[in-house]
Amino acid sequence: MLDQALERYFGFTGLKPGQKQVMEKIMQGRSSLAVFPTGAGKSLCYQLPAVLLPHMTLVVSPLLSLMKDQVDFLQSRSIPAARLDSTLSAEDYMSILDRAKKGELKILVIAVERFKNERFRQHLKQMRISLMVVDEAHCISEWGHNFRPDYLKLPVYRHEFGIPQVLLLTATATPRVMQDMCVRFEIDRDDAVVTGFHRPNLVLQVSPVPEADKPRILVKRMLESREAPTIVYVTLQKTAEKVAQNLADAGIEARAYHAGMPNEQRESIQNDFMSGRVHCVAATIAFGMGIDKKDIRRVIHYDLPKSIENYSQEIGRAGRDGIESLCEVLANKDNLNILENFVYGDMPEKQGIAELLGLIAANAEDELHLSPYSLSGQLNIRLLPLKTLLVYLELEKIIESRSSYYSRYSFQPLKDTRDISSAFQGERREFVRAIFRHSQAKRTWTYVDVAAVEAESGSPRQRVLTALEYFHEQGWILLRSSDSMDVFQIVNRRFDQQVMTEKLYALFKNKQVHEIGRIHLVLRFLQSNACLSFNLARYFGEIMPEGSCGMCSVCRDERSATLERTKKLPSLSGRDKLDLLAGSAEFLGREASPANLTRFLCGVGAPVFTKLKASRSPLFGRLQNHPFARVQEWVEKNLPEIISA
Ligand code: ADP
Ligand code: MG
């Protein structure tokens, strides 16, 4: 049955490793987990069963833009598939939902955020779904490398919508992450299918290099073969710029790429690299998703990778054509702090957690409207951990998400607003006038005071938004919505605030310890005394039958790399350091908690620093070469004395 459908729908003549096993599990009515490297054909594992299963397959993906090609591909094969994304018109959106409810769609692709919307969940309840597919499924595990809080709720939704089977897809999962995924989705461990991590054409190399020598070594490496397509990975945006500049100074054309650059520029660099006009890109990890260039000959880690999963994914972009390619890490221990600081910056303070719980308990209504963005500042918890915290509260059955909406609307007029009003008559004209009367022009955008329009016109909010959307569709204004608000229902207020604070705090602490441990695993891996390829595969649960690759730097040199700190670790004693602490405490004023002081001195951002313009203070980041944990201990020890002085 599978073979026939394979030919008929996809025109493929055979299956790739693992595909048959996974599909058979699904056709036997079981749930499964597929861990295959990128490019190994995970999508087909659901696409083929989807046409054979009685009802619809619901595909959940973190990046809808990447799913566009898949949906186009399915449609070109006459498989009824659709994607719900935010660019659809209301009409198209409804028509897709309609087809899904009538059972006309075989595959529906959505972004995970879609579940937050209660109305969408109501629609889902009216659909018959055979299979839920979760792409990039490692995001569900807090022990994985790309945890997405929203994913944690997927098992709950699966039950809510009575979806009998699930298929999880990922390219990177350690045995622990696999275990976690299987438990959460009730998948039998025997139904997990793992294939080939080992890529025999990748030459793994660890080169111990003092920090100061890195630019020179990199230039040397590039000169060995100038035109070989190369990605140089760095941790910080400014390093990407610096590295590209250093290479340019040495006459090697290279471009920087990071998330701080405008989209068009990023796109053009990516295109130039793909087409071979540019041979070298110095990039942060923002460069990679969707890069499917077959002949990348070198992936050089200028800084330590964040985790072994990251490393594996990043080097996995090299040599897709099967030709030998170099994956080199220029390594020392100097920048360990920078990696650790990302983790420490994500740790909420107990006080922030307690404040949120207090806010919920004291909320007069059962409905709770939160703006994650402003709440982040208020509680001094970064956006990602805040979202995690809100999901924890949902899993604790304290709140339940209802919907989300934008609270701020602004526009740029593309036509005189008086002319827009004149296009209407009678009451409608008055209504449109009220909208513009209650709009305030700032530098580029004009902000609509929706509440004021509601109050004056007596019309519901929805009418105001519909009108604005209409003006936008007519090309009269350029409309923008911002400040997303999440709406929750409070389902339990009678929890013990203190106990719950401790419990949630412990969850975050545990995560932090794990994340720091993950960085140290990278160090251990790079200093392996056995074959690097073997160790890498083993990390992902695969035992390389050959035992060693014979090509990596350990196999070749017959010894492990030893990484050192090449810059001396400065000391934390002396009067001047105490003065620095006192000055920082004074600068932070009311916000001078030990946690904030440590972050401030280590140069780690915190939401409350924004309004204090902390990063512009000459004291900010003055201890950034010290390990965070040491600074924290030192602050906690010396702060009482400073305060009493
Ligand atoms: P992954 O999600 O694992 O990274 P994809 O599912 O995107 O990989 O598949 C990569 C490519 O392999 C796609 O172009 C797909 O059409 C192709 N492919 C998948 N399965 C087969 C097969 N059995 N025979 C031929 N090509 C296949
Ligand atoms: Mg894929």
Helix content range of the residues, please? 40-55%
Q: What would you say the CATH architecture of the largest domain is?
A: 3-Layer(aba) Sandwich
Describe the global form.
globular
And the CATH topology of the largest domain?
Rossmann fold
The average pLDDT is 92
CATH fourth-tier homologous superfamily of the largest domain? P-loop containing nucleotide triphosphate hydrolases
Write out the distinct hetero groups bound to the structure.
adenosine-5'-diphosphate, magnesium ion
What is the CATH first-level class name of the largest domain?
Answer: Alpha Beta
- The percent range for strand residues is 15-25%
Structural class: alpha/beta
Please give the radius of gyration in angstroms: 27 Å
Number of strands: 18
Structure write-up:
The protein has 645 residues and is an alpha/beta fold. The protein folds into four domains: 2-194, Rossmann fold (3-Layer(aba) Sandwich), CATH 3.40.50.300; 202-339 and 538-557, Rossmann fold (3-Layer(aba) Sandwich), CATH 3.40.50.300; 350-490, no CATH class; 575-644. It has 27 helices and 18 strands. The chain has a seven-stranded parallel sheet, sandwiched between helices. Strand 3, helix 5 and strand 4 form a beta-alpha-beta unit. The model has no long low-confidence stretch (mean pLDDT 92). The structure holds adenosine-5'-diphosphate and magnesium ion (MG). Magnesium ion binds at residues 42-43.
